[in-house]
Write a structure and sequence with these properties.
There is one protein chain. The chain is mainly α. It is built from 15 helices and no strands. It has one domain. About 75% of the residues lie in helices and about 0% in strands. Helix 7 crosses helix 9. The longest helix has about 35 residues. It is globular. The C terminus is likely disordered.
């Protein structure tokens, strides 16, 4: 009961967060939102400035799902696990990179001085992206959101590495994870120069890991109170809205069996395509935005409609990419993922 309720909430959170990220990039990068903004400044400013906080939901959920996969293992084969994670991430990621390069070329053809269409990538830039080292190497990103994929791989490898180190003393695994989570929440996450490395984000990710373990225990309410206390302690050191959102998400996952939340088939479908939508939406939005800028630069109605069309096309492109990622998996296998 608790496990199924938690996974249902995971679907709801992934579905909601992925839509917020698409709309955040639509409004943050423009150009369609620039024309529409005077007519809905509050909403579009919030989407451009604050909706990015949905990434914290992804971080917590990623930690939760990684813990579900890793904590029950009796043996951690670290190289194999990290390589499998890389392969799972890189297939749709590589497609999205190709789409971003093509979208940038189309955008430059439509609008030669387009402000958000990067120049043709160099071999070094492409290699850095395929290795997911572009931010560590200080190389400009080819698409929005690719930084998160690199961080996700780092976080998974870090968690698997911690579990591998403590596998001879299973009782130490969670205390070690909790210690690094606290170190991140209280110190590392307050050092912005570290934001290209996994430990900076391990506070939110570790909250997800512990939320999974706590959701499987009796007296979930007491464990949720402990987790909430940790978050309040971190906020007392320095107020960060991103940590508040991560904390609320983690506590909700612990209490999922006791909470009512929207869900169902729509949330499950949007959750299933959340990763490919996250990857592919920026190239789609770039091309739609460039076309609108080229042909209808001053029409408020067309620019608003263009934003909606870009969003819907992003969902369609994400669904197609998802079908390509998992062509052989049946619905039962996907649900058990």
């Amino acid at each position: 009961m608790a496990a199924s309720a938690s996974l249902s909430l995971v679907d709801t959170l992934k579905a909601f967060a992925s839509q917020l990220i698409v709309w955040h990039h639509l409004t943050f990068y423009g150009p369609m939102s620039d024309v529409a903004r005077p007519h809905a400044p509050g909403l579009l400013d919030w989407l451009a400035d604050d909706a990015r906080i949905a990434v914290q939901v992804f971080l917590v959920v990623a930690g939760f799902l990684a813990a579900r996969s890793l904590l029950e293992r009796t043996r951690i084969d670290l190289p194999r696990l990290v390589w499998q994670r890389y392969l799972r991430l890189v297939r749709p990621y590589a497609v999205a990179l190709v789409a971003a390069v093509l979208a940038a070329w189309i955008a430059r053809e439509l609008v030669p001085d387009h402000p958000h269409a990067p120049a043709a990538p160099t071999v070094v830039q492409l290699l850095a992206h395929l290795l997911m080292l572009q931010d560590v190497a200080g190389i400009d990103a080819l698409s929005a959101g690719v930084w998160y994929v690199a961080i996700d791989l780092q976080l998974y490898a870090l968690l698997a590495g911690l579990l591998w180190l403590s596998q001879r003393a299973a009782g130490l695994a969670l205390p070690v994870v909790a210690a690094l989570m606290l170190l991140s929440l209280l110190w590392l996450n307050r050092q912005p120069e570290l934001d290209v490395w996994a430990p900076y984000f391990f506070g939110a990710y570790g909250l997800g890991v512990l939320a999974y373990w706590m959701s499987q225990q009796p007296r979930r309410l007491a464990w949720a109170a402990v987790l909430a206390g940790v978050v309040l302690l971190a906020l007392a050191f320095e107020w960060r809205s991103r940590i508040l959102v991560a904390g609320i998400t983690a506590v909700a996952l612990v209490l999922a069996a006791d909470l009512r939340h929207p869900g169902g088939a729509v949330a499950a479908a949007l959750a299933r395509i959340s990763y490919p939508v996250f990857l592919i939406h920026y190239p789609v939005c770039l091309v739609v935005g460039a076309a609108v800028l080229r042909f209808w630069p001053d029409s408020v109605a067309v620019n608003v409609l263009g934003m909606v069309v870009a969003w819907l096309l992003s969902l369609m492109a994400g669904a197609l990419l998802q079908r390509w990622i998992e062509p052989a998996r049946n619905p039962a296998q996907r649900a058990a993922r």
